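Sequence decides. Our protein:
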Amino acid sequence: MHCWLLFHRELRRGVPEAAEVFRFQQSAAQAGIRLDVLNPRDFELIVDSTEGWSAVYQGRKLAKPDLIIPRTGSETSYFTLAVLRHFERQGIAMVNSPAAVEAVADKLQTLQILSGAGIPIPKTILGKFPVDVGVIERELGFPVVVKTLRGTRGNGVLLCANREQFNDLANLLDGAQSGTDFIFQQYVQASHGRDVRVLVINGRAVAAMERRSTDGSFKSNISLGGVGTAFEPPPDMAELAVRVANVLGLDVAGVDILLDSNGYRICEANSSPGFQGLEKACHISVPDAIFSAMRDRLGLPTSVRRRSSWQTFFAGLATQSPCVWTVAHP
């Protein structure tokens, strides 16, 4: 199998999301998969109705891959979407599709799609200037969550405890008028500092972890110091995560679920979820799971592979803390 992984940052240690790319490289090498890591900005996008396959990268033509894995998430630019659409129209399988990547890059669009499908979400208002504090207080109450539409890894999210704090923030936003769009969202008290990340691959919930903050913050992101532990969700939670991925058209999704007092609410979904914390908590290889699922979907033969250090590690832990389970979409 020949794969491209599209990554928009410099590939070096310490760069956000680079660790996941290194894991894909490690898994591909062990599986006998050819994996090329490419920056979408380095493609020359040439659209010509007289040509068949067209891929020019840093001045040279590339052979057609079997699969493209975008790892640009909520930071996916218009240029990257154009590149993805170009190759999608040329028949290349993708995990995930450009339409799905675009839909979940915008938090409000994600929530609009989910609410239209009857999936529970926190009540949300799109911010506008000047901010009408009365509307926020009437519709959402306080505390209230404030988010940028394209934040990632927990950045661009804060909690306003009361009207006074919100007034200060509103005045700051009104004065800045920076062009950054915000949403205001209902605060789910029962899930303060706690949520569940469910990994869905090809219509199956394959692993989950509970994330908790360690400093009293309402945010539980691992990237912000939260801790993750293996979690076996009830069937209705697993089925909800699968349904979210299906509604959003995601082959691979990290679905973040808030624990409400009378059920669940979907916080967000990610098209290229970080998985360092999930692998550590659940003792699975996420790239292996993705490659295996996509190989099956594409009907490609399984390569003979040697046992990797990760497989050895997981095998040693398998009897201690099993965490891998599957819930198929009905």
Residues 304-322, 324-330 have pLDDT under 50 and may be disordered.
